[in-house]
Amino acid sequence: MAKPVYRFYSDCVSWPRHDVDSEGGLCDLIDARLAITRRTFLQHVDRQRLAELEKNLGYGPWLHMASDWHVEYFRSKWHGKRVYGFRHSAIEFVFTEGD
Predict the structure, then answer these.
(1) Burial group, residue 61, by CB count within 10 angstroms (0-12, 13-18, 19+)
(2) Which of 6, 20, 49, 69 sits at 20 to 30 Å (Cα–Cα) from 41?
(3) Phi-psi map region of 89: left, alpha, beta (phi>0 left; psi -120 to 50 alpha)
(4) Are strands 34-36 and 72-78 parallel, antiparallel or unpaired?
(5) pLDDT tens digits, one per residue of 75-94
(6) pLDDT, tens digit, 9 for 90 and up, residues 24-68
(7) Contact 97, 77 (CB under 8 A)
(8) Residues 44 and 72 sit within 8 Å (Cβ to Cβ)
C-alpha cells in the first residue's frame, strides 16, 4: 500500500478565520506540533509543490531551504488528522493528506 501524499493546504496567514481558534484548529495544531527532520518531512509531502513554495520564499541555486537552520519541520494533528508542515519566519505552512 502506497503512503498518502500530503499536499500544501495553507499557511497560517491565509488560514480560514473561523478555524484559527476552534477546537482542533490552527492554534491547537501549532501547540501540538512535534519536531521532525527535513528527511522525514520529505517522505510525506508533495515535493513539486514544496519546490514552488521554496522558490516563492526566495530560495534558489545559491540558498537552499534544506541548509537553512532557521526552518523547523513538524508533524501535528488538525481536527484529529495527521498533518506535516514547516515553520519559516514564524509562519506555519501546513500540508494535509489528499486534495
Answers:
(1) exposed
(2) 20
(3) left
(4) antiparallel
(5) 999 999 999 999 999 999 99
(6) 999 999 999 999 999 999 999 999 999 999 999 999 889 999 999
(7) no
(8) no
